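Case study 2.
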Amino acid sequence: MTPAQLEACALSFPGATKVVQWGGSDVYKVGGKIFAIVGLGGRLMFKVTDLAYEVMTESGMAKPAPYLARAKWVSLDEPDRLDPDEAADWLKTAHALIAAKLTRAKRKELGL
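Prediction:
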């Protein structure tokens, strides 16, 4: 998935926004909460389910994300080698996991 495809996908979800933080990282949020990060060098980090975290890190498909692994985030060094449909599904899940933790009022405000 190219950086442009990744950005278009992440911003296609309801209430999704993008900010540039931490020295140039693209940070994708829903309701002010981060669901994906494209860091310097192109590394993609995103929230996954507990099961996906175990499968992805144990199989070598992804690494635990620095500073975020305890919250079940993974890191992919070369997202441009990913199948766009598969990456889109991961981003959709990351968005849904974070959106589900928002308050009822915030979800309503965002149309979720």
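Helices lie at 3-11, 50-59, 84-99, 104-110.
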